[in-house]
């Protein structure tokens, strides 16, 4: 479905992406774990067409993406800060992509109502974005993205600004909706728990080089991801609290 082959990028002679290759099938979520500055955002921007690669090829559903401009790639790029139109209601923000595609009004009303129900936003339909919490705003931006049925969803630390509980709720919502609509996604995060929760496939990006893992077990056990040592830490805390309780 998505095939990335030998992608490289430099900024002022500094390599930022080094020979990146991977393939994703329809409905898969590639969770890419990486520290700040590893090249995550540059990778997503190249996929979205917002940045040009120096070398390599991108194919989506068999189509060479090289000549395809960003607005024709049918991808949605979601950031930490949801980008909403401040002067439009929640309903109209979600409806926007359908309106510009000239979808019939009755069809828009139905699709948007269904999406608002799915995202538990029905009671907020007539509010403006500034009348919502951060988690609610992020749900609206999800609704806007999903309603146009993107071929690929690009998520750049989308829940990084949310508190732990809201973040966990959003991860579950993302899982439910992306499974239901069989959405193919690339989800970059520096949080290993988040990667394990949302991913069906796993990668680790370090200094522009991507390691892909064949299984969750390999991802967890790889010393570079540091997940094994994090798990060991929590186990040692549990043991200490058991023996002192
Ligand atoms: N337009 C640019 N010009 C020059 N250097 C850039 C440019 N964009 C990114 N870089 C450099 O490329 C490297 C990777 O940047 P990128 O934004 O992809 O990192 P990141 O992994 O998304 O980091 P973070 O998680 O901190 O956002 C950094 O060293 C950055 O300084």
UniProtKB/TrEMBL annotation:
ABC transporter domain segment(s): 2-232
Domain of life of the source: Bacteria
Keyword set, alphabetical order: ATP-binding, Cell membrane, Ion transport, Iron, Iron transport, Membrane, Nucleotide-binding, Transport
GO molecular function terms listed in the Swiss-Prot or TrEMBL record: ATP binding
Record has Ribonucleoprotein as a keyword: no
PROSITE patterns (alphabetical): ABC_TRANSPORTER_1 (PS00211), ABC_TRANSPORTER_2 (PS50893)
PANTHER family named in the record: SPERMIDINE/PUTRESCINE IMPORT ATP-BINDING PROTEIN POTA, SPERMIDINE_PUTRESCINE IMPORT ATP-BINDING PROTEIN POTA
Name of the protein this chain belongs to: ABC transporter ATP-binding protein
Source species: Hymenobacter negativus
């Amino acid at each position: 479905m998505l095939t990335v082959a030998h992608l490289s990028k430099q900024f002022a002679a500094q390599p930022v992406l080094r020979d990146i290759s991977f393939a994703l099938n329809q409905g898969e979520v590639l969770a890419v774990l990486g520290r700040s500055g590893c090249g995550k955002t540059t990778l997503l921007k190249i996929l979205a067409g917002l940045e040009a690669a120096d070398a390599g090829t991108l194919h989506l559903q068999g189509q060479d993406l090289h000549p395809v401009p960003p607005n024709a790639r049918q991808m949605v790029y979601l950031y930490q800060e949801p980008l909403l139109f401040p002067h439009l209601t929640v309903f109209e923000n979600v409806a926007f992509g359908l309106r510009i595609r000239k979808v019939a009004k009755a069809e828009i009303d139905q699709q948007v109502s269904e999406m608002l129900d799915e995202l538990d936003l029905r009671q907020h339909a007539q509010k403006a974005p500034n009348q919502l919490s951060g988690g609610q705003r992020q749900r609206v931006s999800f609704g806007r993205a999903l309603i146009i049925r993107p071929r690929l969803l690009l998520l750049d630390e989308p829940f990084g600004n949310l508190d732990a509980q809201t973040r966990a709720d959003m991860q579950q919502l993302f899982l439910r909706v992306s499974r239901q609509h069989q959405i193919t996604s690339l989800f970059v995060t520096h949080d290993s728990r988040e990667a394990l929760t949302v991913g069906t496939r796993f990668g680790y990006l370090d200094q522009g080089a991507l390691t892909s893992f064949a299984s969750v077990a390999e991802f967890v056990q790889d010393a570079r991801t540091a997940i094994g040592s994090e798990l060991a830490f929590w186990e040692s805390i549990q043991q200490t609290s058991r023996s002192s309780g």
